[in-house]
Write a structure and sequence with these properties.
The complex is a heterodimer of chains A (182) and B (580). Chain A contains 4 helices and 9 strands. By secondary structure, chain A is α+β, with helices and mostly antiparallel strands. Chain B has 3 domains: 178 residues, Rossmann fold (3-Layer(aba) Sandwich), CATH 3.40.50; 168 residues, Rossmann fold, CATH 3.40.50.1220; 172 residues, Rossmann fold, CATH 3.40.50.970. In chain B, 38% of the residues lie in helices and 16% in strands. Chains A and B meet through helix 1, helix 2 and strand 4 of A and loops of B.
Amino acid sequence: MSAANLSAVPNHSPIGVGAPPRHHILSVLVENKAGVLSRVAGLFSRRGFNIYSLAVAPADESEQFSRITIVVDVESAPLEQIIMQLDKLINVVSIGELSPAEAVERELVLVTVAVGPTERSQVIQLVGVFGGEVVSVGADRLTVMLAGRPEKLDDFEGLLEHYTVVELQRTGRVALPKLDRR
Amino acid sequence: MQLTGAQALIKSLEMQGVDVMFGLPGGAILPVYDPIIDSSIRHILVRHEQGAGHMAEGYAMVTGKPGVAMVTSGPGATNIVTPLANAYMDSTPLVVVSGQVATGSIGTDAFQECDITGVTNGITKHNWLIKNVNDIPRVVAAAFHVATTGRPGPVLIDLPKDLANATMDWYWPTSIDELDLPGYHPVTLGDPGLVREAADLIHGAHRPVFYVGGGVLKARAAEALRALAERTGIPVVTTLMARGAFPDSHPQCLGMPGMHGHYTAVTAMQRSDLLISLGARFDDRVTGKIDAFAPEAKIIHVDIDPAELGKVRAADVGIAGDARLVIEELLAALAADGDTWAGQDLAPWWHQIHQWQEQFPLYYQDAEGGAIKPQMVVEQLRDAAPDDAIVVAGVGQHQMWASQYWQFDYPYTWVNSGGAGTMGFAVPASVGAKVGRPDRTVWAIDGDGCFQMTAQELVTAAAEQIPVKIAILNNAYLGMVRQWQEMFYEERYSEVYLSPDLPDYVKWAEAMGCVGIRAESPEDVGPAIEKANAIDDRPVVVDFRTDAFEKVFPMVAAGQSNDDIVVHPDQAAAAAAAKR
C-alpha cells in the first residue's frame, strides 16, 4: 500500500494556528452530574458566545466535581458577561479566570503519520527533538504523542506538514494558575 | 415511614405549603395522581397544559408564592414549555412537575417520551431528572428553594414513572445544606461601599429618575421604594412589569416608560442625568435604540442578578442585591447625611416634568356616536372596579391600553406577559390570579386574537367556580400587527383580519358555562360593565366591539431612539415644537 492511498487529512493546516489572539481561559468547577456539560455548552450557544476549545475531566478523587477548561475568544463577548451567566448555572460551583500570562497551559496531541522507509526515521527524530513519544507503530504509519504548551504543539504540527498526516487529534488545553514565587 | 415515590412527591409539595396546583393527568404521571385524592392540595383540572402553566403564573404573580403545575410526559410536558419560557422571561417562580417514561425506557423513543429537561434547559432556572426514588423530597425542597430565592424563576422536576411506583423511606430536608446545591449562592445585601457611592451620585444629580422594574415587586419592596422616593423627591417611572410597585396616583409617579410609555416617563428618562434602576433590566422595549438611550445619564443599577449589571448598559455604580434590602441600605446612607434633603434642588427638573405632563397627557380622540374606543372601555372598567381589583392582560394593543389607562395604586394588581409577549396569557392567568386572591375582583382585559388562543380555560373556570371577568377588546384584528402594517408597511394588511363575529363570543361564552354579554355602541359600555360586575357566581365574558382603526400612542418605533417618540397626531405639532 502506498502513501497515496491513505486518507490524508484534507487541506491540513495546524489547528492551533487559528488560536484567538485575545483568548482567555475559564477554569470552571462543576458538579459531576449528567447533563452538566450540555448546560454549559448550551449557555454559550444560547448567549452567542464562542468556545474555542474545551476539556473536561473529574477534578477530585470522589468524582463529585469536574473541571471544565474552556478557552474563549474574548472578542466574541465581554468576558465579565460570560462569567456572570456561567455563574448563574446551578451546577457551576466556581469559575476561575486565567489570562494566558498568569497561567500554565498544557495540551496533548496524537498524530498518525504515513511514513515510507526514509520518512520513518525523520519523524522519529523530530518527535525526539520535541520531547514527544512514538506510541504506536505500524507497517507504514506511526502514531506519535506530544504534550506541552499549545504553541509548542503548533510548531510541531507545522513541521509535520512536510509529511502525510493521516489523523490528528488535540485535546484542547487545560490550565491552572501560575504559582506565586514570593 | 415507607412511601411510594408518588406519595413522597405529593407529601413534599404539602411540606412546601402548596395549597393549590394546576394540571392534567396522563400515562407517565398517573401514579402521582392517585395520592392527590387524599391530599390537602386543591388540584385544578385544566383543559390544556399551557393553561396550567399560565394559571400557575397568575397565581404566583398575585400571591408571591410559587405557582405549581403538574403534567404528563411528552406532549403534556411540551405543552407547558411556553409558560416556562414566559415565567423565565418575567422571573416568576414556578415549580412544574412532569411525568417521564420509566427509567429503563429513557432514550428508546418510548411512547410519549420527550427529553423535557433538555428542551427546557434554556428556559428554566434549573431542572432535575430524578434518577433515584430517594431523591424526591430533596429535589422538591431544592426546586422550591431555587425557584423562590435570588432572581426567582421557573424550575422543572421530571419524574420517571417507575420511580413514582418505587418505595422509599420518608424524610424531609431540614436545612439548605441538605439540598445538594454547592453552586447556588444568591446574593442579598448590597455592598456598603457601592451603596455609599450611589447615595453620593443621588445627591449630585440635577435630573434624576427612579427607573423601577419588576424586581421591586419580586422583592416585596413597594413600601421601601415609596419611602425612598418620598425621602428624595425624585420622580418615579414603573415599567410594564412594575405597574403598581409605586402608586400611579402619587404626584411623583410619571407612569410607564418604553415603546408605548407615557410621554413624560419616556422623555424624563431620555433627558435624565442619573437613572437609578431598581430591579429593571434595560429591556429593548424600554431603552429603544440603546446607543441613543438617556445619553447624559449616569447609571446606578441595582439587581439581584449580577449578570444584569452591565449586560446592556454599563453602570457607573452596579449593586448586586435584593431590591428591598438595597433600598433600605440607600435610605440608611441618605439618613446618615442628615434629616433634610442634602441633594440638588430638583425644582427646575420638576418644572420641566410638569410642563411635559400638561402638554402630553395620554390622549385619544373620543368619537361621538361612533365606534367604541378601546381606551374608553378600559377607563370605564377602571372607574367601576374596586381600587384593589386585579387586572390581567394578554399581549398586544389591549395590553398597552390596559397598562396606560388603568390606575395602578397597589402592588400585585397587574398581571401580564412582559418579556416573552405570550398571546393567550390573559384567560388562564386570570383564573390563576382569582384562585390566588378569591377576595379580589379579577378583570382580564384581552384581545380577540389572544382570547381565541386559550379561551377553553373558561371551561375550567366555570367547572371550578372561579368567577373571573373577561373584557374582550374585539377589534376584529390582530391589532398590534395591524398597527405596524399600517405605519411601516404602507397599509398593506397581511393576515391580520379576524372578523368581529366569527366566532360569536357571546355564544362561545355561554357554551363554556359563562355569562356572555355584548356591547356594540358606546352607550352599551356602561350597562355591560354594570351587568358583568353584578355577577359573582360564574365567569363573565364581555364582547366589546371596538374601533379597529385605533392605534396605541405614544409609540417609539422598534430600533428608533426614544427621542423620536411618536405622539397622537393631535399632539404632533406640540411635540415637534418641544423637540426643537
